[in-house]
TrEMBL record:
The keyword Hydrolase applies. Coiled coil: none annotated. Keywords: Carboxypeptidase, Cell shape, Cell wall biogenesis/degradation, Hydrolase, Peptidoglycan synthesis, Protease, Signal. The active site is at S59, K62, S114. This is D-alanyl-D-alanine carboxypeptidase. GO terms for molecular function: serine-type D-Ala-D-Ala carboxypeptidase activity. InterPro entries: Beta-lactam/transpept-like, Peptidase_S11, Peptidase_S11_N. It comes from the Bacteria. It comes from Thalassobacillus cyri. The lineage of its organism: Bacteria, Bacillati, Bacillota, Bacilli, Bacillales.
Length: 362
């Protein structure tokens, strides 16, 4: 592939007026040692408290276990419960040794009743062993950019080398919520397995009792980790993710973060898929590859500016980048192409790399 020249020809245009820097202060206080509030669509962090510190996470681990299970495409397969799975300590759906249950039912038992036996049965079925499944979990975590996480087991029982951060768990939940099957599971208030003559009721009281806008999540607790909670909520067209670790009052923490987020942020359109709405002398029509929205406060709307950077030499269909700044900080970088549907493999790789480095690339 031809090496692109470093020199750029820069064409700039202002979408919004630019004002002096300011800091948005969250008028909230949470009981949790670690917390984060994230916009689902963009991944922007709206509020954080020690969000990148490595902590024990208890049964919020099971979000990763459930995600790998639903992504496996094997939900209709029957899983044979081993002696090892049946006698896994902690919360349980009371599997019996040799009992056969579909992977789908085990995922519901995992997420609604937090069954550690279900977690181990899933792990052994998909990974061959607990260690094999832990390898899969860590591979997925690395792919998602969960840089402060390491998984030893599928259930979250305490281990010095089993940990994550509030931010990483938000990344995980954001990815999981893009899966329709996972959404269906995590939003269920109850479920009836073919193997049981009674319902499994969801332990997540934020969903079932305390907050009407909650659309899913996972609770957790051990003495060492304290109360842990990952949840998602939707009001209007905005979806948010909240995470608290070691929280004394997690139900109220999540409600408080959500109400603050919904009250103070609105989505604005940073670009619309299609022709770039600016004419550049000597250039044929240019195109954005997708719609992009971003959550901002009223004041932040006045501090957004946009810059169109065109390469001196085109790289395949890619002719430049559209970069949007909040004050002087880049918040989004997206491909600019020379035809309506072009999106090169090279640009996809660069956008993935930018994501892992913390710059939102689209």
């Amino acid at each position: 592939m031809k090496k692109r020249m470093i020199k750029w020809l820069v064409f700039s245009f202002i979408m919004f007026s630019f004002i002096h820097p300011f800091k948005v202060e969250a008028a909230i206080s949470v009981s949790a040692r670690n917390a984060v509030l994230m916009d689902m669509q963009s991944g922007r962090v709206l509020y954080e408290k020690a969000a990148y510190e490595e902590e024990l996470i208890a049964s919020t681990t099971k979000i990763m276990t459930a995600l790998l299970a639903v992504e496996s495409g094997k939900l209709d397969e029957e899983v044979n419960a081993s002696n090892n799975a049946v006698y896994t300590e902690g919360s349980s759906i009371y599997l019996k040794e040799g009992e056969k249950m579909t992977l789908k039912d085990l995922v519901y038992g995992l997420m609604l009743r937090s069954g550690n036996d279900a977690a181990m049965a899933i792990a052994e079925h998909l990974g061959g062993s607990e260690e094999g499944f832990a390898y899969m979990m860590n591979e997925k975590a690395a792919w998602l950019g969960m840089n402060n996480s390491h998984f030893d087991n599928p259930h979250g029982l305490d281990s010095e080398t089993h940990y994550s951060s509030a931010y990483d768990l938000a990344l995980l939940m954001r990815n999981a919520m893009q899966n329709d099957v996972f959404r269906e599971v995590t939003s269920a208030e109850r479920y009836l397995s073919d193997n049981r003559d009674y319902y499994w009721f969801n332990k997540n009281k934020l969903l079932t009792k305390y907050y009407d806008y909650c659309i899913g999540g996972k609770t957790g607790f051990t003495k060492a980790a304290g109360r842990t909670l990952v949840s998602a909520a939707k009001k209007g067209d905005m979806e948010l993710i909240a995470v608290t670790l070691n929280a004394g009052d997690d139900w109220n923490d999540h409600q408080q973060m959500y109400e603050w987020g919904f009250e103070n942020y609105d989505h604005v359109t940073l670009q619309e898929k299609g022709k770039v709405p600016v004419d550049i002398r000597g250039q044929k029509s240019l195109y954005y590859t997708r719609d992009v929205t971003w959550p901002v406060t009223v004041k932040e709307k006045e501090a957004l500016r946009s810059r169109l950077n065109l390469y001196h030499e085109a790289d395949d269909f890619l002719v430049g980048r559209h970069v949007v700044y909040l004050e002087d900080r880049p918040i989004m970088s997206t491909a600019v192409v020379d035809r309506p549907t072009a999106r090169s493999l090279w640009s996809h790789w660069k956008e993935r790399t930018s994501h892992l480095m913390g710059l939102r690339a689209w």
